[in-house]
Amino acid sequence: MGIYAAYEKRPSVNTTCYVAETAAVIGDVRLGAGCGVWPHAVLHADSHPIEVGEDSSIREGTVIHNECDTPVRIGRGVVIDSGAVLQGCVIGDGSRVGVRAVIFGGAVIGRHCIVADGTLVPQGAAFPDGSLIAGMPAQVVRALTPQEILALNQNALGQRDEAGVLRRALAGAMIQRAFAQLG
């Protein structure tokens, strides 16, 4: 597993988290219960912390780091899809950041929002709870329906469950390797 102390800080990873062997969790990163950090994701906290709330999922190839001396705060039940880039921003509880979306420093995404695939959120932008956010630069397209908000919550719980399955499989593989080395 790629969990590394750096900058005199050690990551804090709850024992119920899944961190893929090819992921990199570096410095002052705090992962809440039930989080998943998928293959090739990088969470690099050098100047300020990266806090990821419980039951959140950081998918393949995502890069999260500090920007403008601002911490990253990701709420509970958030899904950050593959290839997203987050720099020094806040993502509210129950939100989803789409594939290859980019969110720059100081941006604030409200609770229960969808940041559409490929969206570019400029530095310092702020969006209210329950918004569908899209574009380059990002704009509120419309308010989410209650059904869409429910689907966001269900997706986050499904991601948490999948991360749990993978965490147990990874632990089993590590035990098998240890026994194989013993002879």
Amino-to-carboxy terminus distance: 23 Å
- Beta-strand residue percentage: 35-45%
- Mean pLDDT rating: 92
Task: Give the helices and strands as they follow along the chain.
Answer: EEEEEEEEEEEEEEEEEEEEH
Largest sheet: 12 strands, parallel
Q: What would you call the shape?
A: globular
- Percent of residues in helices comes to 10-25%
Number of helices: 1
How would you classify the helix and strand content by structural class? alpha/beta
Which spans have pLDDT < 50 for at least 5 consecutive residues? Answer: none
Please give the radius of gyration in angstroms: 16 Å
Number of strands: 20
Polypeptide structure, described:
The chain is of the alpha/beta class and about 180 residues long. It contains one helix and 20 strands. Strands 1, 2, 4, 6, 8, 9, 11, 12, 14, 15, 17 and 18 form a twelve-stranded parallel sheet that branches. The protein is globular, with a radius of gyration of 16 Å.
